[in-house]
Automatic annotation (TrEMBL):
The gene is cdd. This enzyme scavenges exogenous and endogenous cytidine and 2'-deoxycytidine for UMP synthesis. Keywords: Hydrolase, Metal-binding, Zinc. GO terms for molecular function: cytidine deaminase activity. This is Cytidine deaminase. Residues 48-168, 189-297 form the CMP/dCMP-type deaminase domain. Homodimer. InterPro entries: APOBEC/CMP_deaminase_Zn-bd, CMP_dCMP_dom, Cyd/dCyd_deaminase_Zn-bd, Cyt/Deoxycyt_deaminase, Cytidine_deaminase-like, Cytidine_deaminase_bacteria. It comes from Vibrio stylophorae. Zn(2+) binds at H102, C129, C132. The active site is at E104.
Length: 297
């Protein structure tokens, strides 16, 4: 992945690529840029923030795993903190297309898992599809978010989704990204660190429609643990399951899904749906070597 990222630098103006190269080569580079790093880049290259973010999109798109379409989409989400988070589309062979992660979902869930509770802007290298417009509509402060595409003026998100159907139509007032505590308690006497991490993720999941609170924790062979939270959507189909959230973070951390050794998936029986079958199916495809543990609450 790091090689793909560095080769994507060739798509940037030479001076900018030269400036970014040491940042991207840092071992701790985590597919994001701080507000200070972004401001320095803008100043050094006499570019405004939107133009700079657009210029950086080839780097975000370098993280794409488009196994089916070979179509590389990059997105960058600016969090309320001022931090910029990369995202890219993930496609999975041999499972339903419904498992796909879109670039906007990748950048948004990246920001969410890094602690952002609002976003102010999203930059994308292609026009957002209907699925992503609906996903963005679920976000805390969606009315404040701007969308910027190449060669287009920056526009308010709601210009891209007039007459939106959203959470309020289903009498739901809690938006995605707002801090959550679903008050789930452990049901294992000798709790395992991965179980606790998955439970903590489930406690922060967004499932106001089904109450199927769900979280996952993946242990890699290098000892790193990545978690994922379920993110439901008022239109249901654009919901993002927890394993996809974790797989996205693993990819953005320059790690491989083949490094996953063990997975703990925790979910609460909701009104209807159960995610365990889907999660095990996807896990067995992308990380067949991983031990999968399932815990229903
Ligand atoms: Zn999309």
């Amino acid at each position: 992945m790091r090689d793909r990222l560095l080769s994507a630098l060739t798509q940037l103006p030479d001076a900018l690529a030269k400036d970014l190269s040491p940042i991207l080569r840092r071992p701790e580079f985590d597919a994001s840029l701080s507000a200070n790093e972004m401001a320095t880049l803008c100043q050094n290259h006499q570019m405004n923030e939107a133009d700079m973010a657009l210029a950086l999109l080839p780097l975000a798109a370098a993280y794409a795993m488009p196994a089916i379409s070979q179509f590389y989409v990059g997105a960058i989400a600016k969090g309320g903190s001022g931090h910029f988070y990369f995202g890219a589309n993930l496609e999975f062979a041999h499972v339903s297309l419904a498992h796909t992660v879109h670039a906007e979902q990748s950048a948004i869930s990246h920001a969410w898992l890094r602690g952002e509770t609002t976003l102010s802007a999203i930059y994308i290298n292609y026009s957002p599809c209907g699925h992503c417009r609906q996903f963005i509509n679920e976000l805390n402060g969606a009315e404040q978010i701007t969308i910027t595409l190449p060669k287009q003026p920056t526009r308010a998100f709601h210009d891209y989704l007039p007459d939106a159907f959203g959470p309020s139509d289903l009498n739901i007032s809690e938006p995605l990204l707002a801090p959550k505590d679903n008050a789930l308690t452990p049901e294992m006497t000798a709790a395992h660190p991965l179980y606790e991490a998955a439970l903590a993720a489930a406690n922060q999941s967004h499932a106001p429609y089904s109450h199927n609170y769900a979280g996952i924790a993946c242990l890699l062979d290098n000892g790193q643990i990545f978690t994922g939270r379920y993110a439901e959507n008022a239109a249901f189909n654009p919901s993002l399951p927890p394993l996809q959230v974790a797989l996205n973070l693993i990819n953005l951390a320059d790690c491989s899904w083949h490094q996953i050794k063990e997975v703990y998936f925790v979910e609460k029986q909701g009104i209807s749906n159960q995610l365990s079958h889907d999660m095990q199916t996807l896990c067995s495809q992308v990380a067949p070597q991983a031990q999968f543990h399932y815990h229903a609450l």
